[in-house]
Amino acid sequence: MGAGGGSRLGQLFLRSLLFLLLAGPPAPRPASGQLRYAVPEELEHGAFVANLGEDLGLDLSTLSARRFRIVSRAGARQYLEVNLENGILFVNERIDREEVCEAGGTCLLHLQLLVESPLELYRVEVEVLDINDHAPTFPWQEYVLEVAESAVLGARFPLESAHDPDVGTNSVRTYRLSPNGFFSLEVQTRSDTSKFAELVLERTLDREQQRTHRLLLTALDGGVPERSGTAHILITVLDANDNVPVFDQPSYGVSLPEDAPAGTLVIQLNATDLDEGPNGEIEYSFSGHAPLRIRELFHIEPQSGQVLLKGPLDYERTSLHELYVQAKDRGPSAVAVHCRVLVHLLDVNDNAPEVTLTSVSTPVLEDAPPGTVIAVISVLDRDSGDNGRVSCEVSPDVPFELRSSFRNYYTLVTTQALDREVVPEYNISITARDMGSPALLTRSTLTVPVSDVNDNAPRFLQPSYSVYVMENNAPGASICSVSALDPDCQQNGYLSYSIADGHIHGMPVGTYVSINSDSGHMYALRSLDYEQIRSFQIQVQAQDAGFPPLSANVTVHIFVLDQNDNAPVIVSPMPRNGSVATELVPRSARPGYLVGTVSAVDADAGLNSRLSYQLLQATDFTLFSMAPDTGELRTLRSFLEQDATRQRLVVQVRDGGQPALSATMSLLLSVVETMPQTFSDFSEFSLPAEPSSSSPLTLYLLVSLGSISFTFLLAILILTAIRCRGKRCSHGGDGCLPPCCHCCPSSRPSSDGLKTSNLTAQPPAGTTATTCLDVPGGGPPGYCYKVCLGPESAQSDFMFLKPCTPPRNNEKDSGKRSQPGQNLQVSKQIKQPNTDWLTPSTQRPALKSSQSLEDMGEIRKALQKEHERLCTLVTPVSEFQKAPSGTNSIWTPQYSPLYPGHIPPLDYQHNVYIPGTPTLLSSKDGPLFLGRENKNSFSTFGKRKKMTTYCDMHDNVVINNDLK
Question: Is residue 59 part of a domain?
C-alpha cells in the first residue's frame, strides 16, 4: 500500500475514533420488542457493532448448534455478520451510508435474527451514522449569469446548489461569496432543509463601466473537520430590458397519482411580461439548479408553460417532487423570474405483497403433533396505508395454518395429525393479500413432503387361502402364492414372509412346505400322499421391516387331492398254493348257487376306489357269472355230465380311476358229487340261496366243539396271565399282554408305535390252540405278530396277530385284557362316516377265502402293504355263543345306519370297506355291530373257519377263526 493509501486510512481511523468518542459506545436500544444499535459508516471489515449473545440472553455455547444467523432476502448485500463463537455482531462489508440510503434522514439496516431448536426470531435495527466523508461539489465549475444593467436593486439571482451526499450537520451548511461591491449572498432553506444561495444586487450595474464581474462561490458543510467546495461565477451585464415576466403566484401545488402515464399534464404555468415584442415573449424552462432526477421525470413546454410528465413516478421512492421553473422574455437583457411547483404523489396500490420463506423444516413426520412449526414466512408490501397492510392465509383444505408472530411475520404450523398413506405430499398455497382497492395478492406454493412412520401393519389380500394340491406332487414345486400389502413406504413397506412354527402329524411344518420370504411363493418340500394326509393348515406371517416391525397372519388350508395311485388289493379269497385259490362246488348246485364272493379293497377315495368285478377267463363262460358290483360268483346253470370237474377262473378287479388300475386272481373250482363234512374255505362264508333248517346232529357237534374250545382257551388265557405277570416283573411293566408273543424285544418300544385301538378276542369254551407261529411284521419297526392256530392245522379256529408293544390305553383297560375269560373289548366311540360311500344294511360284502398255515407269508406281505388302513373286527365271544348250534355261520363286514333313522345310499359296493365308518359283522341270526377306536380304517375278508384282519401301522392286528 502506498503512502497516500496509508494516509487516507489513518484519516478515516481518526475520524471514526473521534466520532465514537463524541457519540459514545453503541448501546442496544430495545424498541417495541426490538434491539437497536448505531454504527458509523465506512468501518472496516470486522469492526465491532454489538454483542448479540449477551443482549439477547442466548447461551453462547449453543449458537452454532442452533444455527444462529441473519436472515436476509435473496440478492441483498450482507453488511453485517454474527460470530457464532462469541455472539458478536461485526461489520462484514464496508457500509457507505450514501449508497445504502439514497434519501436523507435516518438510515436503518433491519436485521432478522433466526435461531433454531426451538425456532425463535429476533428483530434488530442498526442505524448507520453519517460521517463527513464527502465535500460539497457544484454541478459546474463556472456559472455564467447575465444581468441587465437595468436590474433594480435587490434583484435576486438563484444559484445552482452544491451537492453534499452527507446528511445532517455533515451536509451543506452555508455558502460564502468572495468580496465585491455589487452583489451580496443570501442563503435560503428549502422545505427539505437543504440550502441554496441567491445573489442579491446591492448596487446598480453600469455596463459601460464594467461589462463583467467574476465572483468565487464557496459551499461549506458542518462536519468536523469542515469540508468545502468552490465554483466560479461569471456575471455579464446586459443592456436594459426594463420589464421582467411575472408569475401568477410564486409557488404552486399539485397532486398526481403515482401511476399517471407519461404525457400527463401536471400543471399549466402562466407568466406575464409588460414589454412588447421579443421583450414580452416569455420562454419557460427549469431553473439552472433543477436536479437531474427532476429533468428525467418532468418536461416543460417552452412556449406554453405546460409541465408534462415524462417518466414513471414511484410513491415508494419519493412522495414529493419540487420543481423550480423560470420564465424570461426574449428581449435583450431578459431577466428570468422563478416559481416553485410542488408535485405531491398519491399512493396507488401498485405493489403486490412479497412472500419470503425464511426457514423451512421439511419433510415432516406423519406422526408430528399438531402445532409443529413447518416454516417461517415473512411478507412485505411497499405501498403505504391500507395499500401496504397485508393479510396472509393458506388454503382451507390442508391441515396447516398460519400464526402471526411479529408484524408481517408468520409461522406455518400443523393443525392435525398427518397420514402419509392418505396424502404423501402437500402443496400448500400461501396467499398474501393487501387492503388496497382493488386488492393485490401474491400466491406462493410450498411443497411439504410427509415422512413415513411405520403405523400400518401388513394386510393379506384374502382372509384365508385354500390350496388344492394333487398328491404325488414333485418336491420343490410351487403350490400357491400369498400376497400382502403394506401402505407404508421404503423399509416400512418392505414385507418378508415366513411360516409359523407348528407340527403336522408330529413333524415340523417346515418339512412339508417352505415360502419365499420376498415373493410369498410357497413350495412343497415333499411329495404328499392322499392316503396318509388329506389336509392340513399352516399359518403364514407377513412382517414389515419397520421399527418396531408390524406383522399379520393368514391361514393357508392345503387340501391334498386323490390320484389313482393304488391298485385294488384282493383280500378274499386268499390263494392257497402261491397264486391259485381252490374251492369245492357240489355238482348238485342249482342255477344262482352262490359259489363265493371275491372281495377287494382300494386305498384311494371316490371314483378311484369304486371297484368292479369281472371274469377275464373261464373254462366255461356259460357256467359261472360274476356280479360286477358285489363280486359274487354264482352258477348260471346246473352242472352237466360233460362239464369238466375242474373249472379254472381268472377274476379281474378294476377301480374307477383314470387310468384305471386292476388286480387279477386265479380260482380253481373242483366239482364234487357230495360236499365233505369239512366245508370248503370259499363256500363256508356263502349265504345259502335258500334257507334250510339245521339237523340236530350239527347242533350237537357245534355245542360240543364250542365247549371244548372254550375250556381249552380258558386254560391258555390263565397260563398267559401267569406268564405276563412274570414278564412284567422282569421288564418293569413293559411286557407283552399275551403270552404267545415270543418276539417281543426287551427294550421299551416307542410310544408312537401304537394307538389306542387294540382289540383282543377270546374263543368259545372248549376250543384248544395247539399250533402257534411267530410272524415278524413287515411294517414299521417294533411290530411282530403271533399266529395261533387251532388243533386242526389248516382247520384252526382262531388266529391272533398282535404287536409286541402294549397298547397306550389306560391301565384299567390293560388290566382287564389280561384277565382270562374276558370278552372282546371294543371302543364305544362311533366315528363319523366317510361321506364318499355309504351302504344300506341289506348289502353285506362277504369276505371269504381258504387259508392254511403255509399262506402266512402272503398274509405278512399284505399286512406290510395295507397295515395303515385295513383292519378286521371279530365277533365277541358273548355274541358268538348266542348263535344257534348246528348253523354254519358266515361272517361278513357290512355298513349299518349310523344312527336311528339314517338311510344310507343305495349305490354302495358292499364288498368294499370305506375307511372312517362303523362296521357290522353279519351272521345268520343278524348283524353284530363292532366299533373301532382312533382311525376306523380296516377291512375284513372271510376264510374257512378263520377271518383275517389287516390293521394300520398304529393298531393291533387280530385274525379270528370261527368254530365249525
Answer: yes
